[in-house]
Amino acid sequence: MAIEKEVLDRLLAGRDPQELFAKDGLLDDLKKALSERILNAELDDHLEEEQREGSANRRNGHSRKSVLTGTSKLELSIPRDRAGSFDPKLIAKYQRRFPDFDAKIVSMYARGMSVREIRGHLEELYGIDVSPDLISAVTDAVLEEVAEWQNRPLDACFPLVFFDAIRVKIRDEGFVRNKAIYIALGILPDGG
Q1: E strands of 69-145, at which residues?
Q2: What is the CB-side half-sphere exposure of residue 58 using CA atoms within 13 A?
Q3: What pTM, to 2 d.p., does this model score?
Q4: Do 30 and 91 fall within a single domain?
Q5: Which of 40, 114, 160, 189 is the 20 to 30 Å CA partner of 11?
Q6: CA 1/CA 39 separation, integer angstroms
Q7: How far apart are CA 161 and CA 39, in angstroms?
Q8: How many whole angstroms separate alpha carbon 69 and alpha carbon 28?
Q9: What is the DSSP letter of 159?
Q10: Is residue 192 part of a domain?
C-alpha cells in the first residue's frame, strides 16, 4: 500500500529534514499516533463484542503507559473500559516493550556485547535508560530456547553437512572470554 504524495507533503510541511528520523521526530510521532489508533480500534471491537453478548460495558477514559521501542520511549494513552475486561493485543496489559526491542537486545548480546555495553549502546543511540536487570531478563528468556534447539533430535541421514565456527566474546564465570560458536548445517536429500 503506497502513501499518497499529498499526505506525505502535509506530514513533512514545516519540519526540519534532520529531525524526521531523530528521537521524538516524525517517525516517533507516527508510531505513537498509529499505536493509539490501533488500541482505540481494539477497544471498539471489544465493546461491540460485549454488547452482542448483552453486557453494558463502555469506555472509561485513558491511562498513561511508557513503552520502549527500538528508537525511543513513547508515552501512550491506553483506552480503558468500565468492566476492566479489555486486554489489548498490540501492547498487552503488563508489556512495557515492543517485541522488536527484545530482538535488538538479543542480537547485541549474541554479538558478544556485555550487559553494560548494551546498556550504554541503547542510551547513546536511542536515549533510552534500560536497567541491567531488564537486559539480563531478555537474554535469559532466550537461553532456554537456544538450549532446547541445541538438544533437539537430528535426522539420521544428511547428504551434505557444513561446519563452521565464529569467535565471540562471552561473559563466563564473571570474566569476558573469547569462545567459539560452532555452526553445523545439514541439507536433507529432498533439499530441505
Answers
A1: 73-81
A2: 1
A3: 0.54
A4: yes
A5: 40
A6: 21
A7: 48
A8: 9
A9: S
A10: no
For residues 5 and 78, membership in a common domain is answered with yes
Q: Is residue 143 part of a domain?
A: yes
Whose CA is closest to 134, among 124, 123, 145? 123
d(CA 12, CA 18): 11
The C-alpha cell of 87 is what? Answer: 486486554
Question: Burial code of 145-182, b = ≥16 C-beta within 10 A, e = fewer?
Answer: eeeeeeeeeeeeeeeeeeeeeeeeebeeeeeeeeeeee
11 and 72 housed in the same domain: yes
Q: What is the pLDDT along the chain (192 residues), one digit of tens a residue?
A: 456 677 777 777 777 777 766 676 777 777 788 788 888 888 888 898 888 888 889 999 999 988 877 667 788 899 999 998 888 877 778 778 776 666 666 677 766 777 788 788 777 766 666 677 777 777 776 666 666 766 777 766 656 777 788 888 888 888 898 888 888 877 777 766
